[in-house]
Amino acid sequence: MQITRLRGLREKSAIRDWVSETELHPKNIILPYFVVEGKRIRKPIKSMPGVYHLSIDNLIKDIPEAVGIKAILLFGIPKTKEEVGSQAYRKDGIVQKAIKSIKKEYKDLIVITDVCLCGYTSHGHCGIVKGKRIDSDTTLEVLAKIALSHAEAGADFVAPSAMMDGQVRVIRETLDKNGFKDVGILAYSAKYASNFYGPFREALDSTPQFGDRKTYQMDYRNSDEALREIKQDIDEGADIVMVKPALAYLDIIYRAKQKFNIPIAAYNVSGEYSMIKKLTSGDRRKERDLALEVLTSIKRAGADLIISYFGKEIGKWLC
Ligand code: PBG
User: Fold this and answer.
1) C-beta separation of 71 from 30 below 8 A
2) Residues flanking ligand 1, CB < 6 Å
3) Which residues are the active-site residues?
4) Which of 109, 123, 147, 261 is the most buried (most CB within 10 A)?
5) Distance 181 CA to ligand 1 centre (A)
């Protein structure tokens, strides 16, 4: 029998590059930032080596390090948390102030804001608590207020992540009514109740104080349901839809990409990031190789955009 010699395309690095099917590029990476009140703050987040709490002045200084990056995703950590999380929609809230400062310095940078309550509520849930339940309808009003306050401050995209039914619709209507038709929505559509969010919750101090998020985030045993969530968000006006986490959910990314003709974002979350850090324990080359493999796999599965805490490194690695 004749042997088909597939190794011919792997013989030299130039040939491998020449025929490679997937290209990772920093322009498709979204870099998350955790912004805090105060000045000159750059406080390491223990569970996420290389990621910091930054005050606005330091955030502004940090952005040029993200070579080739076109978009950032902002998370705010308010000074005080309370039951209903009203710090989230103040005009002088931390995210609102950060957007204004960033836009003053970097006009072309795409600023995306996370729209949720978990970082702002004393109980750590993503919505308003009534009895022992997270109440969708009252939460929707608050999410709309938060999104509007971000748009007023100058955000390009808002990213609702509370997993409340109808959140995209309410936000779209509110933005349109108030003259922000051009502000886009990146919807956290298929967001799973995942064990990979641990380090992020340390960063945001947002671990639920009772129960868990399984009554609003998705069950990891399901994938048809993810397509329903995505379809619903598209129908409600999402411009980009997201699958989250990414690495453990490549099948969902793949199915979403096959089914819908809309940009798909994938969030390579904190636990997935920290796993790479742990496995490579400070060896920069190993870290680069493993991170590039993981991120390229997410792209190969069908993600157009990837949210990654390696955002600052990717440009340096690839350019
Ligand atoms: C919550 C939110 C979460 C993340 C982003 N927005 C997690 C949660 O449900 O606690 C996780 C991101 C990460 O783990 O990197 N609205």
Assistant:
1) yes
2) 114, 116, 118, 126, 161, 197, 200-201, 206, 213, 269-270
3) 191, 244
4) 147
5) 27
